[in-house]
Amino acid sequence: METKVYDVIVVGGGNAAFCAALSALEQGASVLVLERAPEEKRGGNTSFTGGTFRTVYNGVDDIRKIVPDLSDHDIARTDFGEYTVAQFLDDIGRVTQYHTDPDLAETLVRQSTDTLLWIRGHGVRFVPNYGRQAFDHEGRYKFFGGFVIATVGGGRGLVDGEAKAARKLGATVRYDAHVTSLLRGASGVEGVRVQFGGGVEEEIHARAVVLACGGFESNREWRTRYLGPGWDLAKVRGTRYNTGDGIRMALDIGAQPYGQWSGCHSVSWERYAPDFGEPEAQTSGQRNCYQFSIMVNAEGKRFVDEGSDFRNFTYAKLGRIVLQQPGGYAWQVFDAQSDQFLRDEYKLRGATKVTANTLEELAPQLEGVNPEGFLKTARDYNAAITRDAPFNPNVKDGRHTVGLEIPKSNWANPLEVAPFQAYAVGAGVTFTFGGVKIDTTARVLDVADTPLPGLFAAGELVGGIFYFNYPGGSGLMSGAVFGRISGREAGQYACGLRTK
Ligand SMILES: Cc1cc2nc3c(=O)[nH]c(=O)nc-3n(C[C@H](O)[C@H](O)[C@H](O)COP(=O)(O)OP(=O)(O)OC[C@H]3O[C@@H](n4cnc5c(N)ncnc54)[C@H](O)[C@@H]3O)c2cc1C
Questions:
Q1: Which CATH number fits the domain 5-217+433-498, given the four candidates 1.10.3630.10, 3.30.70.1070, 3.40.30.10, 3.50.50.60?
Q2: What CA–CA distance (Å, rounded) separates 381 from 408?
Q3: Residue of 35, 42, 46 best suited for mutating to test ligand 1, as the one with most atoms within 8 Å of CB
Q4: Ligand 1, pocket residues at CB < 6 Å
Q5: Which of 51, 63, 64 has its CA nearest to residue 151?
Q6: pTM check: above 0.90
Q7: Whose C-alpha in 43, 274, 277, 379 is 20 to 30 A from the C-alpha of 190?
Q8: What is the pLDDT of residues 25-79, one digit of tens each?
Q9: First and final CA of the chain: distance in angstroms?
Q10: Mean pLDDT, the chain, as a whole number?
């Protein structure tokens, strides 16, 4: 039984949690981090990421501040462009259909760069994300879609770096620690109930609690209840431990549900992937090069404009669209011209892939697809392309189709060069959008918008920022910005109580 009273307990062990821990420690608070997963499975969804952050930067000089060892060679061969506050806000507004909470969105955007520099100050290193966010086109890299920064060592490097820094500043970190509920007393939230290693529930007291323990994406029952029918069958891309506990605990004491409870980040994902993410094969299920394909459903029909925008602004809503197709699956079909744009994961064992030298030979191999329907779709598509616009993967090239019921707006290459290849995809859920309401100082609010004393939140379980869709790279940034704020506020609040 733990008798010590901590200033701040942080629930969770991903990016948001460790940013909160670091920030509370900077306030002089004593900090206990409680992470549900065993140590070898630590790091939550964060550890499944490529560690890529969407952040504001006004040209290469800002990139240099975040990546000081950027070489002159890299600068010479790269068009980094810029990504301004206005662009980031526009992107969040547009993809969320302007439902995003403006105060939370402004906080996220305006504090993005400073927060990355702060993480860097704690020993985490960053690099430009050449591998996944820029194509080499005619000898020059150009970043598309607004996010260029990735952590050295990916998500695992990020969360391990943050955890190391937190321990160095004095945090106690306990794994296999399943927090089940919040303790309430005269001053508000006063600690948590927790089971270590599945044992008897214990109480640990604290002056403030930060909830940073993820959404409900790994809870099959909640997915079906809130996201809707069919979501029980979706594959979870990341950790199995984010089952909505933090949201439930907060709602149990009167927190306000906020954001889009029926919405989630979901992608087109290997159809026969395991039920949960596999830390040793984090990217193996990704099928994010669909903008260079046509996607067909069981009837052999296209059902989405694969090239409506850069994949950073379309991939996070595609899982739902695939799930809505008959049987909840689809195939991505490429010809040899697009092979060079397929990421490594398309080539790994475990991808459900078929190849053929003609479309007629390919058609019967597309399991569960009407072959005649597919062949008609492919022929109609090839005939509808305006070939005068040159293909360019780094810009929205305007190479489009004319006259199809479902257009393809960019990167419309005909399927005409053998060999052809196709990949079976289903829906992979990344994280859920509904959660609790916080203010811009990360205090959890009740239904009257009044802060619940002693309770703060950050990361996936915060509702109100993302709706329908999501600008790639914003999840880590949101967790970092609000994690840092929540730790600072919780630390100040707790230290204030201690000296009373
Ligand atoms: C495959 C994949 C790739 C992604 N790529 C990117 C990317 O490149 N860039 C980006 O910005 N975002 C990316 N995301 C989204 C990103 O992972 C999340 O937005 C972000 O990591 C969430 O951070 P978090 O700290 O809120 O949650 P997490 O990192 O998931 O941490 C939550 C932690 O809480 C713990 N927990 C849960 N319940 C309890 C409990 N009851 N008691 C104690 N602990 C508990 C969990 O074990 C977990 O460790 C990706 C997600 C996935 C799955």
A1: 3.50.50.60
A2: 9
A3: 46
A4: 11-17, 34-37, 44-46, 48-50, 52, 177-179, 212-214, 237-239, 241-242, 245, 277, 282, 430-431, 459-460, 473-476, 479
A5: 51
A6: yes
A7: 43
A8: 999 999 999 999 999 999 999 999 999 999 999 999 999 999 998 888 888 888 8
A9: 26
A10: 94
